[in-house]
Amino acid sequence: MKRLRAWVGLVMLAFGVAAFVAASARWQGLFDLRVYHGAVRSWLHGGDLYAYRQPAPTRAFGFTYPPFAALVMVPLAAAALPVAAVLLAVASLSGTVALLWRRLHRPLPVLAGVVLLFATEPWRDTLSLGQINLVLLAMVGVDLLFLLDRRPAAGVLIGIAAGIKLVPALFVVYLVLTRRYRAALVAGGTALVTVCLGWLVAPGASRAYWTDLLWQTDRVGDIVVVGNQSMSGALHRLHLTAAWPALVAVVLAVWAFRVRKAGALPDHWAGLALTGVAMCLVSPISWVHHLVWQLPAVLILLDSGATGWRRHWFRLLAVGVYAMMATKVVWLFEDPDTVGYQVGSNIHAITGLVLLTAVPIRPARPGSGPERRYRRRLRIARDPYRGDREGSDHVRTADRLGSTGSDRGAHRPPRQQRASTHPE
Protein backbone atom coordinates (compact mmCIF):
# COMPACT_ATOMS: atom_id res chain seq x y z
CA MET A 1 0.00 0.00 0.00
CA LYS A 2 2.84 2.40 0.81
CA ARG A 3 4.45 1.69 -2.55
CA LEU A 4 1.13 2.29 -4.32
CA ARG A 5 0.67 5.62 -2.53
CA ALA A 6 4.19 6.63 -3.50
CA TRP A 7 3.62 5.88 -7.18
CA VAL A 8 0.29 7.72 -7.08
CA GLY A 9 2.21 10.64 -5.61
CA LEU A 10 4.72 10.53 -8.47
CA VAL A 11 1.90 10.52 -11.04
CA MET A 12 0.25 13.47 -9.33
CA LEU A 13 3.60 15.24 -9.30
CA ALA A 14 3.91 14.68 -13.05
CA PHE A 15 0.54 16.35 -13.57
CA GLY A 16 1.65 19.14 -11.27
CA VAL A 17 4.76 19.72 -13.37
CA ALA A 18 2.63 19.82 -16.52
CA ALA A 19 0.38 22.42 -14.88
CA PHE A 20 3.45 24.38 -13.80
CA VAL A 21 4.75 24.42 -17.35
CA ALA A 22 1.40 25.67 -18.59
CA ALA A 23 1.54 28.49 -16.03
CA SER A 24 5.15 29.24 -16.97
CA ALA A 25 3.98 30.74 -20.25
CA ARG A 26 2.87 33.73 -18.17
CA TRP A 27 5.86 33.72 -15.80
CA GLN A 28 9.21 33.15 -17.50
CA GLY A 29 7.37 32.79 -20.79
CA LEU A 30 9.24 29.59 -21.76
CA PHE A 31 11.69 32.05 -23.26
CA ASP A 32 14.52 29.64 -24.10
CA LEU A 33 12.14 27.10 -25.57
CA ARG A 34 10.68 29.86 -27.75
CA VAL A 35 14.21 30.52 -29.03
CA TYR A 36 14.75 26.82 -29.84
CA HIS A 37 11.28 26.47 -31.33
CA GLY A 38 11.45 29.60 -33.47
CA ALA A 39 15.05 29.17 -34.66
CA VAL A 40 14.64 25.53 -35.68
CA ARG A 41 11.33 26.24 -37.42
CA SER A 42 12.93 29.12 -39.30
CA TRP A 43 15.82 26.85 -40.29
CA LEU A 44 13.46 24.09 -41.48
CA HIS A 45 11.77 26.66 -43.73
CA GLY A 46 15.07 27.70 -45.32
CA GLY A 47 16.13 30.47 -42.95
CA ASP A 48 19.49 31.01 -41.28
CA LEU A 49 19.62 29.05 -38.02
CA TYR A 50 21.71 31.70 -36.28
CA ALA A 51 19.94 34.74 -37.72
CA TYR A 52 16.71 34.14 -35.82
CA ARG A 53 16.14 36.47 -32.84
CA GLN A 54 13.67 36.22 -29.97
CA PRO A 55 13.00 39.68 -28.52
CA ALA A 56 13.60 40.29 -24.80
CA PRO A 57 13.19 43.42 -22.63
CA THR A 58 16.84 44.45 -23.00
CA ARG A 59 18.02 42.65 -26.13
CA ALA A 60 17.17 39.88 -28.59
CA PHE A 61 18.57 36.37 -28.24
CA GLY A 62 19.24 33.72 -30.85
CA PHE A 63 20.20 30.06 -31.11
CA THR A 64 23.55 29.43 -29.41
CA TYR A 65 24.04 25.65 -29.71
CA PRO A 66 25.80 23.62 -32.44
CA PRO A 67 23.79 22.66 -35.55
CA PHE A 68 23.45 19.10 -34.25
CA ALA A 69 21.33 20.45 -31.40
CA ALA A 70 18.93 21.85 -33.98
CA LEU A 71 18.61 18.37 -35.50
CA VAL A 72 17.75 16.92 -32.09
CA MET A 73 15.15 19.64 -31.52
CA VAL A 74 13.29 19.07 -34.79
CA PRO A 75 10.55 17.02 -33.02
CA LEU A 76 10.01 19.90 -30.58
CA ALA A 77 9.85 22.40 -33.42
CA ALA A 78 7.38 20.22 -35.32
CA ALA A 79 4.95 20.33 -32.39
CA ALA A 80 3.00 23.31 -31.16
CA LEU A 81 4.81 25.29 -28.46
CA PRO A 82 2.57 24.10 -25.55
CA VAL A 83 3.01 20.48 -26.63
CA ALA A 84 6.77 20.96 -26.93
CA ALA A 85 6.84 22.47 -23.44
CA VAL A 86 5.01 19.50 -21.92
CA LEU A 87 7.23 17.00 -23.76
CA LEU A 88 10.37 18.73 -22.52
CA ALA A 89 9.02 18.88 -18.97
CA VAL A 90 8.10 15.18 -19.00
CA ALA A 91 11.58 14.28 -20.27
CA SER A 92 13.18 16.46 -17.59
CA LEU A 93 11.05 14.98 -14.81
CA SER A 94 11.61 11.41 -16.02
CA GLY A 95 15.36 11.90 -16.02
CA THR A 96 15.28 13.40 -12.54
CA VAL A 97 13.23 10.49 -11.18
CA ALA A 98 15.56 7.95 -12.80
CA LEU A 99 18.65 9.47 -11.16
CA LEU A 100 16.97 9.82 -7.78
CA TRP A 101 15.76 6.22 -7.96
CA ARG A 102 19.30 5.08 -8.70
CA ARG A 103 20.46 6.70 -5.48
CA LEU A 104 17.48 6.28 -3.13
CA HIS A 105 15.81 3.07 -4.40
CA ARG A 106 12.40 3.78 -2.81
CA PRO A 107 9.36 5.71 -4.09
CA LEU A 108 8.75 7.91 -1.04
CA PRO A 109 12.31 9.31 -0.81
CA VAL A 110 12.27 9.82 -4.59
CA LEU A 111 8.99 11.72 -4.34
CA ALA A 112 10.37 13.85 -1.50
CA GLY A 113 13.52 14.49 -3.53
CA VAL A 114 11.57 15.72 -6.55
CA VAL A 115 9.46 18.02 -4.38
CA LEU A 116 12.56 19.48 -2.73
CA LEU A 117 14.29 19.94 -6.09
CA PHE A 118 11.20 21.66 -7.45
CA ALA A 119 11.66 24.39 -4.84
CA THR A 120 15.18 25.26 -6.02
CA GLU A 121 15.68 28.12 -8.45
CA PRO A 122 17.88 26.21 -10.96
CA TRP A 123 15.39 23.33 -11.28
CA ARG A 124 12.36 25.62 -11.35
CA ASP A 125 13.86 28.04 -13.87
CA THR A 126 14.98 25.22 -16.14
CA LEU A 127 11.34 24.17 -16.47
CA SER A 128 9.84 27.66 -16.66
CA LEU A 129 12.36 28.80 -19.29
CA GLY A 130 12.00 25.58 -21.28
CA GLN A 131 15.71 24.82 -20.89
CA ILE A 132 17.38 21.46 -21.64
CA ASN A 133 19.71 21.31 -18.62
CA LEU A 134 17.84 18.52 -16.83
CA VAL A 135 17.69 16.39 -19.96
CA LEU A 136 21.44 16.71 -20.46
CA LEU A 137 22.08 15.95 -16.79
CA ALA A 138 19.91 12.85 -17.07
CA MET A 139 21.76 11.68 -20.19
CA VAL A 140 25.15 12.03 -18.54
CA GLY A 141 23.86 10.52 -15.29
CA VAL A 142 22.40 7.47 -17.03
CA ASP A 143 25.69 6.95 -18.86
CA LEU A 144 27.80 7.15 -15.69
CA LEU A 145 25.46 5.42 -13.23
CA PHE A 146 23.64 2.85 -15.38
CA LEU A 147 25.93 2.03 -18.31
CA LEU A 148 29.53 2.68 -17.29
CA ASP A 149 31.42 -0.50 -16.28
CA ARG A 150 28.37 -2.50 -17.43
CA ARG A 151 27.49 -1.97 -21.10
CA PRO A 152 29.48 -1.61 -24.33
CA ALA A 153 27.39 1.47 -25.17
CA ALA A 154 28.82 3.41 -22.20
CA GLY A 155 29.89 6.84 -23.41
CA VAL A 156 27.31 7.27 -26.17
CA LEU A 157 24.98 9.49 -24.16
CA ILE A 158 27.87 11.63 -22.92
CA GLY A 159 28.99 12.10 -26.51
CA ILE A 160 25.49 13.10 -27.61
CA ALA A 161 25.17 15.53 -24.69
CA ALA A 162 28.50 17.11 -25.66
CA GLY A 163 27.27 17.37 -29.25
CA ILE A 164 24.15 19.23 -28.13
CA LYS A 165 25.86 21.59 -25.70
CA LEU A 166 29.64 21.69 -25.54
CA VAL A 167 30.27 21.95 -21.80
CA PRO A 168 29.37 18.29 -21.00
CA ALA A 169 32.51 17.39 -22.98
CA LEU A 170 34.31 17.69 -19.63
CA PHE A 171 32.81 14.29 -18.80
CA VAL A 172 34.87 12.79 -21.64
CA VAL A 173 37.95 14.01 -19.78
CA TYR A 174 36.49 12.46 -16.64
CA LEU A 175 36.35 9.09 -18.39
CA VAL A 176 40.01 9.44 -19.39
CA LEU A 177 41.12 10.45 -15.89
CA THR A 178 39.29 7.49 -14.35
CA ARG A 179 40.84 5.12 -16.93
CA ARG A 180 37.57 4.23 -18.60
CA TYR A 181 39.39 4.48 -21.92
CA ARG A 182 36.91 2.51 -23.98
CA ALA A 183 33.99 4.64 -22.79
CA ALA A 184 36.08 7.76 -23.40
CA LEU A 185 36.74 6.68 -27.00
CA VAL A 186 33.05 5.93 -27.50
CA ALA A 187 32.06 9.32 -26.04
CA GLY A 188 34.65 11.23 -28.06
CA GLY A 189 33.77 9.33 -31.23
CA THR A 190 30.06 9.96 -30.70
CA ALA A 191 30.68 13.68 -30.18
CA LEU A 192 32.71 13.75 -33.40
CA VAL A 193 29.87 12.02 -35.24
CA THR A 194 27.45 14.71 -34.03
CA VAL A 195 29.74 17.39 -35.46
CA CYS A 196 29.94 15.55 -38.79
CA LEU A 197 26.16 15.18 -38.91
CA GLY A 198 25.82 18.90 -38.34
CA TRP A 199 28.23 19.64 -41.19
CA LEU A 200 26.42 17.17 -43.46
CA VAL A 201 22.94 18.58 -42.86
CA ALA A 202 23.80 22.26 -42.33
CA PRO A 203 27.26 23.01 -43.77
CA GLY A 204 26.78 26.78 -43.83
CA ALA A 205 25.52 26.96 -40.26
CA SER A 206 28.29 24.60 -39.11
CA ARG A 207 30.97 26.71 -40.74
CA ALA A 208 29.57 29.85 -39.13
CA TYR A 209 29.27 28.23 -35.70
CA TRP A 210 32.64 26.46 -35.43
CA THR A 211 34.74 29.19 -37.00
CA ASP A 212 33.08 32.32 -35.63
CA LEU A 213 29.97 32.18 -33.44
CA LEU A 214 31.40 29.71 -30.92
CA TRP A 215 33.94 32.30 -29.78
CA GLN A 216 31.44 35.14 -29.40
CA THR A 217 30.47 34.67 -25.75
CA ASP A 218 28.56 37.96 -25.79
CA ARG A 219 25.92 36.26 -27.96
CA VAL A 220 24.93 34.21 -24.90
CA GLY A 221 24.57 37.24 -22.64
CA ASP A 222 26.38 39.86 -20.59
CA ILE A 223 29.16 38.13 -18.68
CA VAL A 224 29.16 40.58 -15.77
CA VAL A 225 25.51 40.28 -14.71
CA VAL A 226 24.65 38.58 -11.42
CA GLY A 227 22.87 35.77 -13.25
CA ASN A 228 26.25 34.50 -14.47
CA GLN A 229 27.64 32.49 -11.56
CA SER A 230 30.76 31.11 -13.22
CA MET A 231 34.23 32.05 -12.00
CA SER A 232 34.58 34.28 -15.04
CA GLY A 233 31.45 36.21 -14.08
CA ALA A 234 32.57 36.49 -10.46
CA LEU A 235 36.01 37.79 -11.42
CA HIS A 236 34.49 40.31 -13.82
CA ARG A 237 32.32 41.66 -11.01
CA LEU A 238 35.37 41.81 -8.72
CA HIS A 239 37.52 43.43 -11.47
CA LEU A 240 40.04 40.56 -11.22
CA THR A 241 39.75 39.16 -14.72
CA ALA A 242 43.52 38.67 -15.03
CA ALA A 243 43.31 35.90 -12.41
CA TRP A 244 40.88 33.80 -14.45
CA PRO A 245 43.39 31.50 -16.25
CA ALA A 246 45.25 30.72 -13.02
CA LEU A 247 42.05 30.04 -11.10
CA VAL A 248 40.73 27.79 -13.87
CA ALA A 249 43.99 25.82 -13.74
CA VAL A 250 43.70 25.40 -9.96
CA VAL A 251 40.06 24.32 -10.16
CA LEU A 252 40.79 21.78 -12.88
CA ALA A 253 43.76 20.42 -10.93
CA VAL A 254 41.66 19.93 -7.79
CA TRP A 255 38.87 18.42 -9.86
CA ALA A 256 41.25 16.00 -11.61
CA PHE A 257 42.79 14.88 -8.31
CA ARG A 258 39.41 14.21 -6.72
CA VAL A 259 37.75 12.47 -9.67
CA ARG A 260 40.73 10.15 -10.10
CA LYS A 261 40.14 9.05 -6.52
CA ALA A 262 36.40 8.72 -7.17
CA GLY A 263 37.00 6.60 -10.25
CA ALA A 264 39.39 4.27 -8.42
CA LEU A 265 36.91 3.32 -5.69
CA PRO A 266 34.62 3.54 -7.84
CA ASP A 267 32.18 6.32 -6.90
CA HIS A 268 30.63 7.64 -10.10
CA TRP A 269 28.04 9.60 -8.13
CA ALA A 270 30.87 11.71 -6.75
CA GLY A 271 32.36 11.87 -10.24
CA LEU A 272 29.06 13.17 -11.63
CA ALA A 273 28.75 15.76 -8.86
CA LEU A 274 32.36 16.98 -8.96
CA THR A 275 32.44 17.24 -12.74
CA GLY A 276 29.12 19.09 -12.78
CA VAL A 277 30.42 21.58 -10.21
CA ALA A 278 33.70 22.08 -12.08
CA MET A 279 31.83 22.51 -15.35
CA CYS A 280 29.78 25.37 -13.92
CA LEU A 281 32.89 27.02 -12.48
CA VAL A 282 35.15 26.97 -15.55
CA SER A 283 32.52 27.72 -18.19
CA PRO A 284 32.66 31.38 -19.30
CA ILE A 285 28.94 31.74 -18.61
CA SER A 286 26.94 29.66 -16.14
CA TRP A 287 23.46 31.04 -15.65
CA VAL A 288 21.68 30.24 -12.40
CA HIS A 289 19.53 27.65 -14.16
CA HIS A 290 22.73 25.87 -15.24
CA LEU A 291 23.37 25.11 -11.57
CA VAL A 292 21.18 22.02 -11.77
CA TRP A 293 24.58 20.40 -12.34
CA GLN A 294 25.40 21.22 -8.70
CA LEU A 295 22.29 19.54 -7.31
CA PRO A 296 23.80 16.00 -7.31
CA ALA A 297 26.45 17.35 -4.92
CA VAL A 298 23.71 18.42 -2.50
CA LEU A 299 22.16 14.94 -2.68
CA ILE A 300 25.51 13.31 -1.93
CA LEU A 301 26.07 15.58 1.06
CA LEU A 302 22.69 14.53 2.48
CA ASP A 303 23.31 10.85 1.74
CA SER A 304 27.04 10.73 2.47
CA GLY A 305 27.13 7.59 4.58
CA ALA A 306 29.52 9.38 6.94
CA THR A 307 29.36 9.06 10.72
CA GLY A 308 29.94 11.33 13.67
CA TRP A 309 30.74 14.99 13.19
CA ARG A 310 31.44 14.54 9.47
CA ARG A 311 27.84 13.50 8.84
CA HIS A 312 26.56 16.59 10.69
CA TRP A 313 28.97 18.82 8.77
CA PHE A 314 27.91 17.40 5.40
CA ARG A 315 24.22 17.79 6.20
CA LEU A 316 24.70 21.33 7.48
CA LEU A 317 26.53 22.24 4.29
CA ALA A 318 23.79 20.63 2.19
CA VAL A 319 21.10 22.61 4.00
CA GLY A 320 23.04 25.84 3.49
CA VAL A 321 23.56 25.25 -0.23
CA TYR A 322 19.94 24.21 -0.67
CA ALA A 323 18.72 27.31 1.16
CA MET A 324 20.72 29.58 -1.16
CA MET A 325 19.36 27.80 -4.22
CA ALA A 326 15.77 27.92 -2.98
CA THR A 327 15.65 31.53 -1.74
CA LYS A 328 17.10 33.37 -4.77
CA VAL A 329 19.38 35.25 -2.38
CA VAL A 330 21.84 36.12 -5.15
CA TRP A 331 19.32 38.48 -6.75
CA LEU A 332 19.42 40.71 -3.68
CA PHE A 333 22.86 41.87 -4.86
CA GLU A 334 22.18 42.95 -8.44
CA ASP A 335 23.08 46.55 -7.59
CA PRO A 336 26.88 47.02 -7.22
CA ASP A 337 26.21 49.59 -4.50
CA THR A 338 24.51 47.01 -2.28
CA VAL A 339 26.31 46.25 0.98
CA GLY A 340 28.05 42.89 0.64
CA TYR A 341 27.92 42.98 -3.17
CA GLN A 342 31.39 41.44 -3.54
CA VAL A 343 30.30 38.30 -1.71
CA GLY A 344 26.54 38.18 -2.27
CA SER A 345 26.70 38.63 -6.04
CA ASN A 346 29.09 35.66 -6.30
CA ILE A 347 27.51 33.38 -3.70
CA HIS A 348 26.87 30.46 -6.06
CA ALA A 349 30.39 30.62 -7.49
CA ILE A 350 31.80 30.58 -3.96
CA THR A 351 29.51 27.68 -3.12
CA GLY A 352 30.83 25.81 -6.14
CA LEU A 353 34.40 26.17 -4.90
CA VAL A 354 33.34 24.81 -1.50
CA LEU A 355 31.50 21.87 -3.05
CA LEU A 356 34.50 21.01 -5.22
CA THR A 357 36.54 20.32 -2.09
CA ALA A 358 33.79 19.11 0.27
CA VAL A 359 31.81 16.51 -1.70
CA PRO A 360 32.51 13.18 0.02
CA ILE A 361 33.87 10.25 -1.96
CA ARG A 362 33.14 6.69 -0.93
CA PRO A 363 33.20 3.22 -2.51
CA ALA A 364 30.14 1.93 -4.27
CA ARG A 365 27.55 0.51 -1.92
CA PRO A 366 27.89 -3.20 -1.02
CA GLY A 367 26.10 -5.38 -3.51
CA SER A 368 26.14 -2.81 -6.33
CA GLY A 369 27.47 -3.82 -9.72
CA PRO A 370 30.67 -1.72 -9.62
CA GLU A 371 31.37 -2.81 -6.05
CA ARG A 372 31.09 -6.50 -6.93
CA ARG A 373 33.39 -6.14 -9.91
CA TYR A 374 35.86 -4.10 -7.85
CA ARG A 375 35.99 -6.76 -5.12
CA ARG A 376 36.35 -9.53 -7.67
CA ARG A 377 39.31 -7.78 -9.35
CA LEU A 378 40.97 -7.43 -5.95
CA ARG A 379 40.45 -11.11 -5.12
CA ILE A 380 41.83 -12.29 -8.45
CA ALA A 381 44.80 -9.92 -8.16
CA ARG A 382 45.65 -11.44 -4.79
CA ASP A 383 45.03 -15.03 -5.94
CA PRO A 384 45.28 -15.44 -9.76
CA TYR A 385 43.82 -18.97 -9.54
CA ARG A 386 40.78 -17.69 -7.68
CA GLY A 387 39.01 -16.73 -10.90
CA ASP A 388 38.84 -20.39 -11.97
CA ARG A 389 37.09 -21.29 -8.75
CA GLU A 390 34.47 -18.49 -8.84
CA GLY A 391 31.77 -20.88 -10.00
CA SER A 392 31.66 -23.05 -6.87
CA ASP A 393 28.93 -22.65 -4.27
CA HIS A 394 31.55 -22.38 -1.54
CA VAL A 395 33.27 -19.38 -3.14
CA ARG A 396 29.96 -17.68 -3.90
CA THR A 397 28.97 -18.06 -0.28
CA ALA A 398 32.32 -16.65 0.87
CA ASP A 399 31.94 -13.73 -1.54
CA ARG A 400 28.55 -12.92 -0.09
CA LEU A 401 29.98 -12.98 3.40
CA GLY A 402 32.87 -10.75 2.36
CA SER A 403 30.60 -8.14 0.76
CA THR A 404 28.10 -7.99 3.60
CA GLY A 405 30.45 -8.20 6.55
CA SER A 406 28.18 -10.77 8.21
CA ASP A 407 28.74 -14.38 9.25
CA ARG A 408 25.03 -15.13 9.07
CA GLY A 409 24.52 -18.55 7.52
CA ALA A 410 28.22 -19.43 7.46
CA HIS A 411 27.44 -22.83 9.00
CA ARG A 412 24.92 -23.70 6.30
CA PRO A 413 25.83 -26.23 3.59
CA PRO A 414 25.59 -25.23 -0.09
CA ARG A 415 22.11 -24.86 -1.60
CA GLN A 416 22.06 -28.26 -3.33
CA GLN A 417 23.12 -30.08 -0.14
CA ARG A 418 20.46 -28.27 1.88
CA ALA A 419 17.81 -29.33 -0.61
CA SER A 420 18.88 -32.98 -0.42
CA THR A 421 18.48 -33.13 3.38
CA HIS A 422 14.73 -32.53 3.16
CA PRO A 423 12.35 -35.25 1.99
CA GLU A 424 10.13 -34.64 -0.99
From TrEMBL:
Keyword check for Metal-binding: no
Lineage top rank: taxon: Bacteria
Compositionally biased spans, kind Basic and acidic residues: 383-399
Membrane topology: Multi-pass membrane protein
Keyword Calcium: no
Swiss-Prot/TrEMBL keywords: Cell membrane, Membrane, Transferase, Transmembrane, Transmembrane helix
Gene Ontology CC entries for this record: plasma membrane
Pfam families linked: GT87
Bilayer-spanning residue ranges: 68-101, 130-148, 155-177, 183-202, 238-257, 269-292, 313-333
Region (Disordered): 383-424
UniProt-recorded Gene Ontology molecular function terms: hexosyltransferase activity
Family: Belongs to the glycosyltransferase 87 family.
Name the UniProt record assigns to this protein: Integral membrane protein
Native organism taxonomy: Bacteria, Bacillati, Actinomycetota, Actinomycetes, Micromonosporales
